[in-house]
Specification:
Oligomer: single chain
Order of helices and strands: HEEHHHEEEHEHEE
Distance between the termini: 56 Å
Shape: globular
Strand order of the largest sheet: 1-2-3-4-5-6-8-7
Helix content: 25-40%
CATH architecture: 3-Layer(aba) Sandwich
CATH topology: Aminopeptidase
CATH superfamily: Gcn5-related N-acetyltransferase (GNAT)
């Protein structure tokens, strides 16, 4: 006979409200869970030449949908400015206890680049990942030549860890270096 205390509880599905929050910053910047009606706008932003420059070939609508619905390794949130879709920000989590941390990626329409929106969005998501998801360390990995993004991440408190040589393959087949940056909970700067 099995002792009821020896039976493992059934795995509970993650609380999607906890994983897909509504986060509000200053200057009209907010992050929210996406809806199917956002797929076209996000795919349009992913085709923006200034986004393609850093993100490469745009994701298929089905990939964007999967991230919005939670059917992907990454959680995608919509970046809004004054209720207008400005881009997407996503995170993924390594939940192995010995290596627990999260990674962030962001893309913004060229209309919103260079205006502090990215810094605000990354700061909001970093606070959420530290305070709600209880991570100690976050990573982000811009292209070494994406100086605007690097400056933005440094404003949040991310530090340069090192160059990842030939990190990503560009659409033309050449390889580009990436910059690994990380942020520890104790080092964050609140900008939101």
């Amino acid at each position: 006979m099995t002792d009821p205390g020896d039976v493992e509880p059934a795995a509970q599905p993650p609380d999607t409200r906890e994983m897909r929050p509504n986060l509000v910053g200053s200057a009209g910047v907010s992050l929210r869970p996406g809806r199917m009606s956002d797929v076209a706008a996000l795919c349009g932003i992913l085709r923006d030449p200034e986004v393609v420059r850093w993100w490469g070939d745009p994701e298929e609508p089905s990939e964007v949908e999967a991230k919005l619905l939670g059917d992907s390794y990454a959680v995608l949130l919509v970046v809004e400015v004054d209720r207008q879709v400005a881009g997407g920000i996503e995170y993924w989590e390594e939940n192995e206890p010995a290596y627990r941390h999260a990674g962030i990626d962001i893309y913004l329409s060229s209309n919103w680049q260079g205006r502090g929106v990215g810094t605000q969005a990354v700061s909001l998501l970093a606070d959420f990942l530290f305070d709600v998801r209880d991570h100690r360390r976050l990573t982000i990995d811009p292209a070494v030549t994406n100086l605007r993004a690097i400056r933005s991440y440094e404003k949040v408190g991310f530090r340069r860890v090192g160059v990842m040589r030939e990190y990503e393959r560009a659409p033309d087949g050449t390889y580009h270096d990436g910059l690994l940056m990380d942020l520890l909970r104790s080092e964050r700067r609140r900008t939101s």
